[in-house]
Amino acid sequence: YTVNGLTTLTYTSIGYKQIRVCADVLLPDNSICRVCKDTVVHVTVAPNFTSVVNCNKIYLYDASTVVAPAVINSYNWSVGTNPGNTPVSPPIATFDNNTIASPILTFTQSGSYIVNQTITSGSCTITVRDTFNISVPDAGFTFNNSCVGTPVTFNDPTPEPIHFWGFGDGATSYINPTNHAYAAAGAFSVTHIVTDVNGCKDTLIKSITISPAPVCTVTLSGPPTFCSNSSVTLGSSCTGLVGYQWYNNGSPMSGATNSTNIVTQTGNYHFTAHDVNGCFVNSDTVSIHVLQAPNVNIITSGSACDQSAYTVSVPGCNGCSYLWEVDGTTVSTNNIYTAFVGSAPYTLGAHSIKITVTDPSTGCAAVNTISVTFNALPSVLISVAGPLPVCSANLYTFNATSSAVNPGWTWNFNNSNFVLGTASTLSASANGTYTVTVLDSTTGCKGQASQVIMRSPFVNLFPVGCNNLCDTSKVFMPLASLNGNLAGYTIAWYDNAPPYSTLVGTGVSLSLNTLTLGNHNLSVIVTSPNGCKDTSNVYSINIRNCHSTLPITGLNISARQTGNLALVGWSVEQEIDNDYFIVEKSYNGVDFFYLRKVISRGNSSTKQFYDIIDSLNNDSGIIYYRVKAVSILGSAQYSPIVKLKLSEQSVENILLYPNLTKNDVNVLIQSSSSVNTMLQIYSANGILVYSRAVTLIKGLNKFTIDVGNLSSGLYITTLNTNNAKLSGRFIKQ
Fold first, then answer.
1. Which of 151, 546, 689, 699 could form a disulfide with 179 if both were Cys (CB 3.0 to 4.6 A apart)?
2. DSSP character for 155?
3. Cβ-contact 590, 508 below 8 angstroms
4. Which of the residues in the chain have pLDDT under 70?
């Protein structure tokens, strides 16, 4: 034991004790010189004790010694706080007898304590002390009296590691805090045992009183069976409850935490709550049955605009009755009602439309009402800027005006969906019907107006340029016909116009023998049946006197149909100074129009053959052909008229021309698919005289075969396609 400075040392054993006392001396040179002295003291009285700690008790045993003949005259034990050694009094620390040699010390609170032993021997009174850490477990706990079925919370605030709870009804628990709900009313003894880390235990028993659970039933504001468009309010027969939670079919209902609950669905309903004493309430269960009310969801279709059909309907149900009312007036007893806007009951303006549906199988009725405003169509007018009448030979500007609010414009042509413009104005020149649609952005209603540009006569086929013509010729004004009808056109012929003052003829042609020989500048003004006019260009001609000798003799014509084609052929016995042929076509046998020009092969005293192919794609019924032969002097003569009656033809066909030939024969084949095949020619007695591999494409195919080396006679040409066997005949001269 070493200490600096003054000190007191209490020895716990008797005997001779050696003590060394040292002093450090500061010398003049500032060095330290330590000087020590040894001495021996004789300890004749020495206090001392031993102890045994058992939880909250300390068993103290005196171990003090004295040198005879000295004896210990008295003992005095005390307890103080650590630190400070402030006296601690009962009941925190209690000795069974603090004046005996070996007492027992009992604590009621955990903590760190100093135990003091003071002994007196003769004139010596000496004290020795020791420090102890005491652990005192506390089984104290809190709870509140409760009711049957309501969980009770038992809580020990001390942090002991081991708890045992006995609730007095056979149930136990080992957790803290713990909850327990009693199944019966009465008084119960609750036992709580705690064990600390040192194995020390404390036991406390308290009595709890459990009252009967409150009995509450569900109340109803109406019958438990009702229609789906109704409801019932559930409540409680008890008052003053708090913490409501309603359940449907055992599941908590979201947001249903009030004392009343409005329900609209089938189910089994009950509630839980707590009374003013905190007792848990679990109500009885009521069964709610909801009958399906008729579906009165009103579906509307159609436009709420004037002149439109507007329909209201509800889904149908078996056996249900229906009653539609418009502004209180019954209009229909079906589930669907349609009327036209603008007529009663759908007059323009605001209306209330009501439907009542009754289902006799359940007795349920349902009502629904909608408000509808029927609107007038916006007015729309089209003004025309341009010459009248409105004909396609001119450019016009259409300007549309309307009563619509913030109008939206759409222009269409001939009732097509193609939009020509989206402004209120439109420039147009083509013949047809122009329709403007205006949309009222407020009501959604549309108004329409139309303007027709009538078709002007088409005079572009009138001859142009300069020409030398015989006085025996005619000049024609070719016009487009409607189904072959040229009636209604007015054609006025003028010479040396403008001015258009010298009228020289009318009709589709002008005979030049009505004019003087020499130069003329011809033009026509054509007026259509609709009143539209157009003026042709100028055709400059020189009329001369022509001899009467005909350029050709023996002019004959024939026509044959194959598929959508017509083979028009003609032959002449002799040609003298013939210039060309004009093939003309007619739909009525009277009014012919230009079809094709074929140049003459020149002067010939032998029979010559000519032909053309005419497309029949847009033709039907009967058509007519004729050929005009025109000499180099301008004189002309016509062939007889040939009539061709059109009929439905196979999509696959073969045509040979000319039928009478010396050298070449042309083969036209209409095929419905592509195919590789053989084209073969047989004599009249069945001998194969010609064979050739050909590739057909889908559509029209043409081949030319040199038959000049064949003997005169009848020959048959055959060819196979994917769908048919085709054949045709020709005669070799």
1. 151
2. B
3. no
4. 1-3, 480-487, 546-551, 648-651
Q: What is the pLDDT of residue 673?
A: 85
Give me the pLDDT at residue 171, please: 96
C-beta of residue 296 within 8 angstroms of C-beta of residue 312 = no
Contact call for residues 138 and 194 (beta carbons, < 8 A): yes
DSSP string covering 640-706: PPEEEE-----S-EEEEE-SEESSEEEEEEEESS-EEEEEEEEETTS-EEEEEEEEE-SEEEEEEEE
Name 694's bridge partners: 677
Residues 6 or more apart from 93 whose CB is under 8 A from it? 79, 105, 106, 107, 113
d(C-alpha 678, C-alpha 692), whole Å: 6
520 CA to centre of own chain: 75
* pTM assigned to the model: 0.45
pLDDT tens string 511-563: 998 999 899 999 999 998 888 999 999 999 998 876 555 667 888 888 888 77
Q: Is the peptide bond before 499 cis (omega within 30 degrees of 0)?
A: yes
**pLDDT for position 173:** 96
CA atoms within 13 A on the CB side of 393: 18
How far does the chain reach from its first CA to its final CA, in angstroms?
162
**Per residue in 565-586, pLDDT tens?**
888 888 888 888 888 999 999 9
The Cα 137–Cα 162 span in angstroms is 10
| Ordered DSSP codes for 508-576 | SEEEGGGS-SEEEEEEEEEE-TTS-EEE---EEEEEE------SEE--EEEEEEETTEEEEEEEESEES
Nearest-angstrom CA–CA distance, 705 and 109:
136
Question: 63 vs 11, 52, 54, 125, CA distance in Å?
Answer: 12, 13, 20, 16
> Phi and psi at residue 122, in whole multiples of 5°?
65, -125
Q: Which two tokens stand for residue 449?
A: 């107006």
Number of H helices, E strands in the chain: 0, 67
Beta carbons of 374 and 349 less than 8 angstroms apart: yes
Mean pLDDT taken over the chain: 90
Q: Which residue has the tokens 């049955």?
A: 289
